[in-house]
Structure formats: C-alpha cells, structure tokens
Amino acid sequence: MKLLRIILVLTVTATVLLSSCRRASTPADQAINDKTLLLGNGSEPQDLDPQVCTALADYNILISLFEGLTCIDEKTSQAVPGVADTWSCSSDGRIYTFHIRDNARWSNGEPLTSNDFVYSVKRALTPELACEYSYLLFPVLNAEAFNTGQLKDFSKVGIKAVNAHTLQITLGYPCPYLPTLVAHQVWYPVHEKTLTRFNAFNKRGTAWTKPENLVGNGPFILKSWVPNSRIVVTQNPNYWDNSHSHLNAVVFYPNDNIATDESNFRSGQLHITWDLLPERILHYQKNNPTLLRVDPLSDSSFLRFNVTKKPLNDRRVRQALSLAIDREAIARDVLYNSRTPAYALTPLNTGCYNPKPEAVTNIGLAKKLLAEAGYPEGKNFPVLELQMNTDAINTKIFEAIQEMWRNNLGIKINLANLDFRIWLDNQRTLNYQISRSRWVGDFDDPSTYIDLFLSDSGNNRTGWVDPEFDKLDKIANETLDPKKRFELLQKAESRLLYEAPIAPVFYGTRTYLINPAVHGWESSLLGIHRYQYIELVAP
C-alpha cells in the first residue's frame, strides 16, 4: 500500500509538471477549433445600414452580412460574380444586364430578386435619406436628377427589373468600371419588408439593423452586437455559396487603441489586429516576422478644411497651411517609413493613374500667402481646432503638424481627440474647423478619390463648391478614351489642390499582425476580404 501511494503521488506530480509546461489554451486557439475568426476592427460601428455607413470599419462588417451584384476579388481588385452570376453590356456601353442567381436567398429564406435591387437603389437616391454615397449611383440615367429632387418619377431612373432574375441598368453615359462599382455597399440590396416594418426607407438609425431584426443576403447573419465590445456574425444557412464556406462565425472587436489591439493579439484574444503602431514594426521584423503583414493599400490621409468658417474661407490661408506641412518628416520620423508622403490626394498608380506632385512643402510661399491674407508671421491669426478620432498614430501625426504650423507660420492650433462616431458626425454636419481625414478607395480608379469633392457629393464634407472642378470631373467621367480621361481628371485634381479645401499628408499601407493559423487572407489593395473563404488551420 505504501508503495502504491508513492507511485500515485509521483504520477500526480508528473501530470501537474507536464500540464504546467504546456501553454494554456487561449480564446484564439479554441476559436481555430470552432472555425471562428477573431478580428480587431478599429472602432464601434456607426450603424450596419449599407446605405448609411461610410467608415471602413463598418464596411468590414457589412461585407459579411450583405452581398452585391458583384464582389471585389482581393488579388486583382476586379469584379467577380456575386448575387449576379453573369452580366453583359451593350455595344455602346450604356446598358448593363445582370442575371440574378436562381438560388439567391435572403437570410430568412425568401427568394432574392431583381426588384430588391431596384428598391435599394431608389432608397439610396431618395433625398430624405441623405445617403453620402448616392453619387456612386449617378452614372445611372437620371439618378442624379432624382437624388437632387429635379425628377420626382423614379420610373424614369435607368434601373428596372425585367423579371425576377434579370436586372437592367441604363446609364446616362458609359461607365466601363460599372461591374466593379456595383460591388459597393451603396448598391447592396436591403429587405423591403423589414424596412417597411421599421419605417426605415428614408430614415437613419432605426431598429432594423439590430440582431433580432436584420435580414441580409450575405454569407453570415448578425448573431449579436454588444456596443463597444463585440459584433458576432454566424454562417447564413441560406447563402448561395455555402458549399465553399469554411468559417462558422466571425467576431469583430471594436477597439481604437492600437496598443491594446496588439496586446490582445499577443495574449491570444485575436487572430488579426486592425493596425500596428509604426514603431513596433521593427520589433516584429526582427523577432516574429511570420506574424507581421505590411500590405499595399489604396489609402490617402489628408486634412479637411471647413471653408464655410473664417479664416479658412480664404484660399490663401488653406494653401499656407498645406505648404507648411513637411510630409517627408512625418513619413520618416513619425511613421518610421511605414507610409509614404502624399503630394496629391490620389495614391500613386490608382488604376494606372499617377497624379502630379503638387501639394509640396514651401515655407517661404506659405508665409507670403499668410501675410497676404492679413496674418503676417501669424499675427492676429485665431486659435483653430483640429479634430481627430482617438488614435495613438493620429495624435503623433497631428502633434507634429501642430508644431510645424507653430514654428513655420507662428500660429496656434488646438488638437481635439473625439470618439469615432462623434468625429465622423461632426465632419458630416460641418461641425469642425480642421479635421483629420482618411479615404480608402472603394474601387481601383482615381474617380473614387476625385469624385469625393464634387459639389453634390455626400462625402465632400468641406463646404467647398467649385463649378470648374465639377465640370472637369463630369467631362472626365463621360470620356471613354483612358488617356484623355486621365488628363481631365488630372486637371480636376490640380484644381482641387490649388483651391486647397484639403491638404494631403501621407499614403497608407495595411500594417497588422496575423496568426499563422489564418489561411487565404490575401493582400487586398482595397482592404476587402470575403470571410467565407478564409480557413483556420491549427499549426
């Protein structure tokens, strides 16, 4: 018996020692077994309404819940079949016909038809909704006239259901990138019965996007949404391509603290982070290169100036502020060369378009223009406020710009860190003086950037209206010859940079950490990922 007790004690001790040597299973480990992807997602969603949201963090969730006529291929940034399995275009480039899949369904099992797309386009164009992305529908015949209220009869807008599975779109002018354009969220179908139930056709912020109410058509359904904590989506049993889906669920963790995001990854709470502080890149390059990803991204960061407020209503003041920014120093000293200086709005090689570098640093000219505007050496210049969403990278960048303006121009700017949704809403309502801004391309074409500042663009958000810019942009987008079109877009962008309602700062990359168990996560120029095709494979 004594020997037996000794053996038992030794066995238990060995088991305890062996267990202590094993790494404790983390949530990320368990999620691999459960086929659940855990993602950092930057910020709390503004909403989950595809015709209302504008933030990339919101779109990351929307793409799991809805699907357009087409989707964007991560590798090529080109259109691939979505709800429509095929499409064709007339010889004059003005009529597109999309064929809806026979097995396309809403998440509640109801058939999805071409009428659903007609309904959604009408909603996005209805003036009362004030959809910021409505201008992406303007290639459609009479869409702009309906959106501005000049046309009341929607039947004259160039979109119609030929039958339940055939959608015809008639354009006012040729738009060669339309198949890519219709992959955008503003074109997503929304469920008419659900919106009618919540009186949400022309209203924002209703309860139709709550988990218990939302009916979508994407590869996942909204399971739960705990504000400022997590958003959980689970596989949609009625999705048309479930046979190729690998994940059971995706959990999005809204968190605008980049250091915390990294800490959560290191402790096994995430599979992929939203971002990574630039100063941490070298650490991972040296110590854990397999965890680090630095992907190309169609991304432009810039300042918006509210031109409706003095002294920013003076072009010379705006030009001076832009000219006094040392973009190379920001990219080198603040961002550790993880980004590149931006001398124009549109990133280089966007759809083969390369803008002229016209937003340069010229301190002498900046001082001269500020003096001409009545503020020599910054004398009597009012203290302005620069708003930004709370983010460690933002703080460092704009503290640097704040100091550049103080040293180079003799002016004082206060910085205001705001909650993401408040910051975004202040831009929308022009409740700011200067605002940090960022734009990730919706498709791989320069118009995704230049069109932002059309007078009737809901994403303009500067108060700047310029008929000459509008004219150049309109002619460009009606021009089929690529060379001539780019020449016109360049003239429009030059006009924008001269009038300076914005000041470009840097072009971005997607810098993040990724668990080696994540397979199929392609480098995506537009930051788009179709989660249903991602696999989790235990090392």
**Class from helix and strand fractions:** alpha+beta
User: How many strands?
Assistant: 18
Residue share in helix: 25-40%
Order of strands side by side in the largest beta sheet?
12-16-11-15-13-14
Q: Report the portion of residues in β strands.
A: 15-25%
Report the major sheet.
6 strands, mixed
Q: State the separation between the terminal residues, measured CA to CA.
A: 44 Å
Tally the helices: 17
| Average pLDDT over all residues | 94
Low-confidence stretches: 6-22
Instruction: Output the radius of gyration.
Output: 25 Å
Shape: globular
Written overview of the protein:
The protein has helices at 2-21, 27-34, 56-65, 114-125, 143-147, 178-181, 192-197, 258-266, 281-287, 315-323, 327-334, 363-372, 392-409, 420-428, 447-450, 467-477, 482-499, and strands at 36-40, 70-72, 79-81, 84-89, 95-100, 159-163, 166-170, 220-226, 230-235, 249-253, 292-305, 340-341, 384-389, 413-418, 434-440, 502-513, 518-519, 535-536. By secondary structure, the protein is of the alpha+beta class. The strands form five sheets. The chain has a six-stranded mixed β-sheet with strand order 12-16-11-15-13-14, with helices on both faces. Helix 10 (315-323) packs antiparallel against helix 12 (363-372) and helix 16 (467-477) runs antiparallel to helix 17. The longest helix is centred in the first third of the chain and has 20 residues, at 2-21.
